[in-house]
Structure prediction request, 231 residues.
Amino acid sequence: MTSNSRRSKRAAARAADRSSGRSRWLWPLVGGGVLVVAAIVAIALSSGQDTGGSSARPSTSPATSVAAGAGPVVTGAALPVFAAPDGDPAIGQAIPTVEGASFDGAPVAIEADGRPKALLFLANWCSHCQAEVPVVQDWIDGGGAPTDVDLISVVTAIDATLPNYPPDAWLAREGWTVPAIVDPAGTVADAYGLSAFPFWVFVDGNGQVAGRRTGELSISDLESIIAGLAP
Prediction:
């Protein structure tokens, strides 16, 4: 499918949502707060700041219709819970290895394989994730994504009782082409220290954490950070 076809498909899906009275943008922030991170990015020479908001991770286990035992397998030491990019203790740590699968059952892994990575953790009910996904997809469709850095998404905090469920239908509407690991129990989220959505984890070619961020990132900030992952 061409980038223009994906954009047309997304526009048609959004129009259908509006005509049926559904809205993916009206769910209030879970946890009652907006985490705004304003610090120097440790892995880039630029001083870009988060310009978008974030949604707090729920403190209770979500209700999900994903079958038990269908989740990913994680090995390796977990990263500390993320608080701020400045002085993040996870920087330099080896990433946990993940063996997972996408919604259609295709295998998707996160491992130290010599390639830098940008990992994006998403929740379908998170309004900021809903804003971030089309921006990133348009960037990919426009040829902006580098070919020497792997983009991988993790869909977690799946809750069948919240709006914009199921997440695979949401991502299909957006024409999302980034491989997505389904994380129904939050196993991968726990291992990577997720504290709010959207959650970005940047990994260097040695399989070590180069930096973590929460909140919507502008494409200019994303490109600056990814440029710092080059060996």
Remarks:
- Residues 125 and 163 are 6 Å apart (CA to CA).
- Residues 3-19 form the longest helix (17 residues).
- Confidence is low (pLDDT under 50) at residues 17-51, 63-69.
- The chain has one domain: 3-65+72-227.
